[in-house]
Write a structure and sequence with these properties.
With 182 residues, the protein is an alpha+beta fold. The chain has 4 helices and 6 strands. A 3-stranded antiparallel beta sheet has the order 1-3-2. Strands 4-6-5 form a 3-stranded antiparallel beta sheet. Strand 2 and strand 3 form a beta hairpin. It is elongated and about 65 Å long.
């Protein structure tokens, strides 16, 4: 019997997501599928140490892309929103690099740059062109019940966008800097 779990990860939390999936597998729940917006479908399994990895490509990939990972022992699981999910039993890891899907730190840094360009930049542009102007507009005019609701809604969006921009921006920059130093 499948089990669905609710958990929210931002684009900057992909390493935490990998650890979260691994811990569930160790506890007898194998990841099966991601269901938007933030649901994970698991099925019962024999508890085992399995490494999960995510790769970000922002689009559909060819069968050659998945085959490359398969050739290195990675099982393709699912994809959503540009993220591709893979797993490999820890027992198959002979050297540390076998547990990674990237061959070097520069490849990881490239993935971070791609996330920033295709996820963070559009989020920032939406913030500047929609959220911020609507927030300023919400204070003009009569403050009736409708206007008050609109002000509360636009203020909530402003806070949410600011949090996401700051949290993800700082975390992605920190990871990118760490990868570039290696």
């Amino acid at each position: 019997m499948s089990k669905m779990k609710l958990h929210f990860f931002t684009v900057a939390d992909y390493e935490e997501e990998e650890i979260w999936l691994r811990n569930h597998h160790k506890n007898g729940l194998r990841f099966v599928k991601f269901i938007p917006p933030c649901f994970f479908l698991f099925e019962p399994c024999t508890p085992e140490d399995v490494i999960y990895r995510l790769d970000y490509k922002n689009g559909k990939q060819s069968s050659d892309y998945v085959q490359i990972f398969s050739d290195y022992g990675w099982e393709y699981l699912d994809s959503f929103g540009g993220w591709f999910y893979f797993r490999k039993p820890a027992s198959e890891i002979q050297i540390e690099s076998d547990g990674e899907i990237f061959s070097d730190a520069a490849s990881k840094a490239d993935m971070i740059r791609h996330i920033i360009q295709t996820r963070m930049l559009p989020l920032f542009l939406i913030f500047l062109s929609c959220v911020l102007p609507n927030w300023f507009t919400s204070f003009s005019g009569d403050l009736g019940a409708t206007r008050t609701f609109f002000t509360i809604l636009s203020s909530s969006l402003l806070v949410l966008y600011l949090y996401l921009l700051i949290h993800c921006g700082r975390k992605l920059k920190k990871r990118k800097d760490e990868y570039e130093l290696k």
